[in-house]
Amino acid sequence: MTPFFDDRMAPWVADRIKVSGDGFGNCRALGVEHRGAIVAGLVFHNWEPDHGLIEISAAAEHRGWMTREVVRVALAYVYDGLKCQAAVARIAAANAPARRIWQALGAEEHIIPRLYGRCLAGCIYVLTEEAWKRSRFNVR
């Protein structure tokens, strides 16, 4: 799996996770390639530089795309590049694989009833810079 920055990945992710409106707006995107094919994408959006906060959304068409290298590149951009103090993700409560990823990274989980509709709970994950520094995935 090879990560690469390409903002054209934002519509690719938006289409797969059904982002409404104009997509992510002002954002930065990271693609993941495997054997010449795009298998996943991450979008960094809703950046609040005054608060040191950014949101991350992702979509994938291949299992196993979230390698240590992909995580390292993505979160180096967040914490070293943008100098954020926290990253946030919104995930449907039913999306167990994505939830496991954020939990494994050390993010705090907050379950929000109706975040995705009347009968669809969602989770907000917050990965602080300190939690990332302690994470077993932050190996340099």
Task: Report on the architecture of this protein.
The chain is of the alpha+beta class and 140 residues long. It has a single domain, classed as Gcn5-related N-acetyltransferase (GNAT) (Aminopeptidase). It is built from four helices and seven strands, in the order E-H-E-E-E-H-E-H-E-E-H. Strands 1-2-3-4-5-7-6 form a seven-stranded mixed β-sheet. It is globular and about 40 Å long. The model has no long low-confidence stretch (mean pLDDT 93).
Question: What is this structure, in a nutshell?
Answer:
This protein has 140 residues and is of the alpha+beta class.
Features of this protein?
about 140 residues, alpha+beta, Aminopeptidase, seven-stranded mixed sheet, 4 helices, about 30% helix, globular
* Helix percent band: 25-40%
CATH superfamily: Gcn5-related N-acetyltransferase (GNAT)
Q: How far from one another are the termini? A: 18 Å
What is the N-to-C succession of helices and strands? EHEEEHEHEEH
Strand content: 35-45%
Note poorly predicted spans: none
Shape: globular
Mean pLDDT: 93
CATH architecture: 3-Layer(aba) Sandwich
How would you characterize the largest beta sheet?
A: 7 strands, mixed
| CATH level 1 name | Alpha Beta
| Radius of gyration computed on alpha carbons | 14 Å
**Helix vs. strand class:** alpha+beta
Count of individual helical segments:
4
